[in-house]
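Researcher: I'm preparing a figure for a lab meeting and need a structural model of a single chain. I don't have an experimental structure, so a prediction will have to do for now. The sequence is pasted below. Please return the structure as tokens so I can convert it later.
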Amino acid sequence: MIFQGSRPPLWPGLPLAFALSLGVASVGASLTDIGPWYLALRQPDWKPPDIAFGPIWTTIFTLCAVSGWLAWYAAINRAERRALVWVFACNAVFNVLWSYLYFGLQRPDWALLEWVALWLSVLGVVLVLRRITPPAGWMNLPYLLWVSAAGLLNLATMELNGPFG
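Model: Understood. Here is the structure written out token by token.
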């Protein structure tokens, strides 16, 4: 069962979840400069084309919004709701920080170190949401897989271009 009792109300929960998710995505996107520095980096042959990143991140942030909304209304007490806020807030900080380190400071080496915290925060999202309502947790598996692939891409970029700084 996804919810305790009846269906969750659509308003204001789902629009709010989308606004928060879009806000995090927008901050991260504003820090992602696909300019001369990035375009000059040697990339591994298996890197997805740059045009794929937008739809992938849009899908991930959509799934985060819907899963957070589902879990919020499935939560049975304040402690579960506090855990949701905490895990999503930590994830938002680490998501934005990775973009800042990699693109803003042009430090893939620092971004790779921070990637560990980002990956753990995504795992935390999966586990906390799964404990509250399994479907919401599983909705974030694509996020965990994508961040895993991004870490490998980050490492490969460092190996092809380092040292940085």
